[in-house]
Design goal:
The protein has helices spanning about 1-25, 45-55, 130-140, 180-185, 190-225, 295-300, 355-370, 400-405, 410-415; strands spanning about 35-40, 60-65, 80-95, 100-110, 120-125, 150, 235, 240-245, 255-260, 265-270, 275-280, 280-285, 290, 315-325, 335-345, 380-385, 395-400, 420. With about 425 residues, the protein is α+β, with helices and mostly antiparallel strands. It has four domains: about 1-25 and about 195-230; about 30-190, no CATH class; about 235-300, SH3 type barrels; about 315-425, no CATH class. Strands 1, 2, 3, 4, 5 and 6 form a six-stranded antiparallel beta sheet that branches. The chain has a five-stranded antiparallel beta sheet with strand order 12-11-10-7-13, with no helix packed on it. Helix 7 packs across helix 8. The protein is elongated and about 110 Å long. The two termini are about 65 Å apart.
Amino acid sequence: MKRLKSTLCHSAILLSLMLSMTWISIPPFSCAQAVPYARTFPKSKVEVEKALKELQAYSGQKLPVIEGFVATGDQPLDRYERAYFQYSIDMLSTSPQATTVRVTAKITAWHVDPSPWKSGYEVLPSNGRLELDLLDRLGEKFGEKPVTSVLKSEVQAPTPKLNLSTGLPGGSPQPGKSSAMLGSSAAAPSAEGMEEVAALRAKREAEEKRMLQLTSELQSWRDVQHNQAHPLNLVVVKKTGTPVLARPAEDAHVLFAAAENDEFEFIEAEGPWIHVEISGASRGYIRRSGLELPEYIATRLKSPNGTASDEKQEPFRIEREETAAFPGDWDPLRGKSVKIYTVQPASQDPKETGAAAKLNFAFSIFQKFSTESVTVTPPVEGVVIIFDSADGGIIGTTLLNVQQFAGGSLPRDNFWKQCYVDPPEAFRPNSKP
């Protein structure tokens, strides 16, 4: 099993690296190549560069929306978010007092793919709006219209060996030549550039083939892991934040909060609580309502009518425990902090949940409370049981009465007479047998 997990982890990491390499090598859009836009301004290169810095043209910026700035691609634009753009600027000195500014905009955005592992940042093709906007703002900063406009097809991106400080390869252009002639001299792509593109394309195809192979292998390992025999005694947490407690009580110390789908080994059931093994000798308690029980354990704990089969059936079950102010106007507990148990009938038979059954169940809770009251935080001065049913009621008593009753100094009949009951008839057994 450990070897399988190790192999699966290794495959996942290798697949992630291959995906990253593929994204860096070639943009996923075939039309995402940077297309330059250019204009010539009657300013020196130094003046143009200063103006561009004042316009903050060299710093990347967030793009609020991508509609209207990106050319149509293969993917719907509503699948992209967190868009940014960055200008790439080249300056060619056509004369001491004339500079051609060539601009390309690189737009990146996070692509949300239906398959999460395919999501990632992608380069999107600009439709020229960002480039033309920067050139327009640069012209406005100089206070005059550009003397020459150059279409995007007339100026080609520089080859890797181009030295922009001295102009095009082969020497500086003569001052009288137009920017159109400048563009025509660099229109033909170099053989070296074509070879580089071909090499990148071949590399990408090889990486895509390898990526598909790894994806298939990873899915196969996942299928094997999923189909392996699953332990029968594991309970599964339903919701993130489910508390794992040190004792089977609502006010017990919280060991930690479990996450959704966390699995723990079942030890035993204690009423509404499931005793689980956390790690090694560590143990904890989780409410049964917060767990998914496998069929093996559910069958073991439940009889066909849904009650525990291996222990005596209780007529009521505790649904909630809390510490709050006394909910009535009984003088001994008015306004005081009490422990409140909310219980519901576990049987639909009225004979099994009548007044006598309520008193017997309350008696068991009072006995339990007498042993736990010293550890209750914050301290309480009484205990209340709310029977949450159509014929239910409320019964409560003070901590002193519980302690006297547990110690034997207060007989059971006298104890009931000193309890708070509402309504009294809900806890008055019928006189008939």
